[in-house]
Design goal:
The protein is of the alpha+beta class and about 725 residues long. The chain contains 16 helices and 36 strands. InterPro entries: AAA+_ATPase, EF-G-like_DII, EFG_II, EFG_III, EFG_III/V, EFG_IV, EFG_V, EFG_V-like.
């Protein structure tokens, strides 16, 4: 690929898209520390968008501008970095590399038309990167691989390439390989052009490769050409190549670009960015820009998610056409205390313009605190963000990405469309948050502000689920992991001025009878004025697990008038909700009302409610009261090598493994029944045991008796933490 050069754009002016075919939306994917943010800085500098690259260590990078990111020196948010190269507008989407922030990562993949996997030559491939490669493969997302840190002492480019080929399969092949000089890394040799690109002077200089690399170049070039030929639509190429004919390089490059765009070939590139103890030249930016601008697909070549009318009906055909009906999606929402809500939007069809009305539709996220909504709002200003800098944009055409101000109801995942014909896009898949963290406000002032602050966080982050558990009287943030929870709590403090503290999570237990018993309920007050009179006799016996509550009326002779029998049942139910031993609701009992007394004047509905409650408490004092714990049905998906340790761990948590089955890709699905008390932090533990590759799901199954030693501990503990 030829050097196109050129440094259009600049930090003060937003790059403009000359047409749908001149846009490239690229998500940077890779594990934390692989160098994605540093690579963004180098590309922005190489294209003249920045005059000087920032450093992660100094907190001066474009894409890590959130104060949490600056403090932690890692990306926790999706960030957009647009720039121009060779007449093409490139929207780089820098995604977090830590598993806790996979929500932003998946949002970035939704906005992108291709993925650039960033892999460190020092650290290699981690479990999350393997999983994301599989996700991209499932939707046929075009991909390329860039290996960073090739200048570092422990960096081994050739070894990482072999690992990529082993892990990612066929179609992975390097386009260049790095070469050294007296002072360290010198440049790259292009395998197709057979030219050396020397960066030792700071600028790219094309020259003849050193003869010492001839054998290595010939071997790798042959492998690359064979890979390209296999993807070529020209069936004569292989025969011509095998016969010894020298194939036209431009033709090979054309076939390569076509194969990359359709997601069947994955070129590997090499880069080096000076930092810390490695002050060498910046290497590989122009080669990477050429692949992005020439080989990655434009929005015209990448499919659009299914779209259906808001009121229902068959899916609609949507094309990437600036003149078509507006269809756009909110990829990321942020709330600024001063600016208000800002929505990062990918336009799939039509053209988004300031000061026009749009229909905002959000559906299917009620379980995470996002109410279904269909509203019409007016678009505010459009901007093209470069980190925290918002640069004014006059419009945003199909295929492009922009930020929209002041859409007060827009949330991450919402669809924007023409109010005359509103539609909703099929949402992308979001993982379930499985780490519960109980919090409470530190003061009354914090409590007053907490509700609004949490509602804003929920609107921004679809991987967050908010639970206000009336039973345990706790506010619970269901998060993706410890780091995710830390960031949420940090944002409450730094962005919204709300101080909260963590509390021990209470698992909702139940009580039940350990045997059959009779109970007497006597509520008699006749000292002056209108009295209260209600007496009832009940028999209580336990029911099988999951049977709930059964009330049987065996009153004969009218000893309790018919109108007061429901009052007894109501009183029993109310006492069941309050519990009789440790303050937990009672379940799985049968109550038989068989006798009682009433007064012609003083009996009332309230009197017999009180009598029913007293009767249940009296019966409970005569038999053991069992504490029941919730048990979940779990499915744990792990790589085959972790099956043994995971099963042993589940057993140590009082779990019962029900079986396992093989899953394609060298993985196993383990099914087990595990008490909720034992898995409150399982999201963290599983990630540690499986090197970040394990996932799990859970659903409530039933209640079971809590072991005696644990029941005694719970009963003796605080009831209102």
């Amino acid at each position: 690929m030829a050097d196109k050069g050129g440094h259009p754009g600049g930090q003060g002016r937003a790059p403009e898209a000359g047409g749908c075919d001149r846009i490239r939306n690229v998500a940077l994917v890779g594990h934390s520390g692989a160098g994605k943010t540093t690579l963004v800085e180098a590309l922005l500098t190489a294209t003249g968008t920045l005059q000087r690259a920032g450093r992660v260590e100094d907190g001066t990078t474009v894409s890590d501008f959130d104060e949490v990111e600056v403090r932690q020196r890692r990306s926790v948010n999706l960030a957009l970095a647009p720039f121009s190269y060779d007449g093409v507008k490139i929207n780089l989407i820098d995604t977090p590399g830590y598993a806790d922030f996979v929500g932003d990562l998946r949002a970035g993949l939704r906005a992108a038309d291709a993925a650039l996997f960033v892999i460190s030559a020092v650290d290699g491939i981690d479990g999350l990167t393997r999983m994301l490669w599989d996700e991209c493969a499932a939707v046929n997302m075009p991909r390329a691989i860039v290996i960073t840190k090739i200048d570092q002492q422990r960096g081994d480019f050739d070894d990482v390439v072999l690992t990529c080929q082993d892990v990612f399969g066929e179609g992975v092949a390097p386009l260049y390989f790095p070469v050294g000089g007296e002072g360290g890394l010198k440049g790259l040799i292009g395998l197709l052009t057979q030219r050396c690109f020397d960066y030792s002077t700071g600028a790219r200089v094309e020259c003849e490769p050193d003869p010492q690399y001839a054998e290595q170049m010939a071997e790798q070039r042959a492998s690359l050409i064979e890979g390209i030929i296999q993807e070529s639509e020209d069936e004569s190429l292989m025969d011509r190549y095998l016969s010894g004919e020298e194939l036209n390089v431009k033709s090979l490059i054309g076939d390569l670009e076509t194969a990359v765009a359709r997601g069947s070939f994955y070129p590997v590139l090499a880069t080096s960015v000076p930092h810390g103890d490695h002050p060498g030249p910046v290497i590989g930016m122009l080669e990477l820009l050429e692949v992005i601008s020439q080989a990655f697909p434009s929005p015209l070549e990448h499919g659009i998610p299914p779209v259906t009318p808001v009121k229902g009906g068959p899916p609609r055909e949507v094309a990437c056409d600036p003149e078509g009906p507006l269809v756009a999606e909110v990829i990321k929402t942020t709330s600024d205390p001063y600016v208000g809500r800002i929505s990062l939007v990918r336009v799939f069809s039509g053209t988004l313009r300031p000061d026009t009305q749009v229909h905002i539709s959000g559906h299917g996220m009620e379980d995470r605190g996002h109410e279904d909504h269909d509203v019409v709002e007016r678009v505010g200003a459009l901007t093209s963000p470069l980190g925290k800098t918002q640069r004014t944009a006059s419009s945003c055409i199909a295929g492009d990405i922009c930020a929209v101000a002041k859409l007060t109801r827009a949330e991450t995942g919402d669809t924007l469309s023409d109010p005359a014909s509103p539609v909703v896009m099929t949402p992308w898949t979001m993982p379930d948050p499985l780490l519960p963290v109980a919090i409470r406000a530190k003061s009354k002032a914090d409590e007053d502000k907490l509700g609004q602050a949490l509602s804003r966080l929920v609107a921004e982050d679809p991987t967050l689920r908010l639970e206000n558990n009336s039973e345990t009287r706790q506010l619970v943030l269901w998060s993706m992991g410890e780091a995710h929870a830390d960031v949420l709590i940090d944002r409450l403090r730094s962005r919204y001025g709300v101080e909260v503290e963590r509390t021990d999570l209470r698992v909702p237990l139940r009580e039940t009878f350990g045997g059959k018993a009779d109970g007497l309920g006597r509520h008699v007050k006749q000292s002056g004025g209108h009295g209260q009179y209600g007496i009832c006799h009940i028999e209580v016996e336990p029911l099988p697990s999951g049977e709930g509550f059964e009330f049987v009326d065996k009153i004969v002779g009218g000893v309790i008038p018919r109108q007061f029998i429901p009052s007894v049942e109501k009183g029993v139910r109310q006492q069941m909700e309050r519990g009789v031993s440790a303050g937990y609701p009672m379940v799985d009992i049968k109550v038989t009302l068989y006798d009682g007394k009433a007064h012609s004047v003083d009996s009332s509905d309230m009197a017999f409610q009180a009598a029913g409650a007293l009767a249940l408490k009296d019966a409970a004092s005569k038999v053991p009261i069992l504490l029941l714990e919730p048990v979940d049905e779990m499915e744990v998906l792990v790589a085959d090598e972790y099956v043994g340790p995971i099963m042993s761990d589940l057993t140590s948590r009082r779990g019962r493994v029900q079986g396992s089955q093989a899953v394609p890709g060298g993985r196993t699905m383990i099914k087990a029944e595990v008490p909720q008390l034992e898995i409150t932090r399982y999201a963290i533990d599983l990630r540690s045991m499986s090197q970040g590759t394990g996932t799990f799901s859970r659903r409530f199954l039933r209640y079971e008796p809590l072991p005696t030693h644990l029941a005694e501990k719970v009963a003796a503990g605080p009831k209102d933490s």
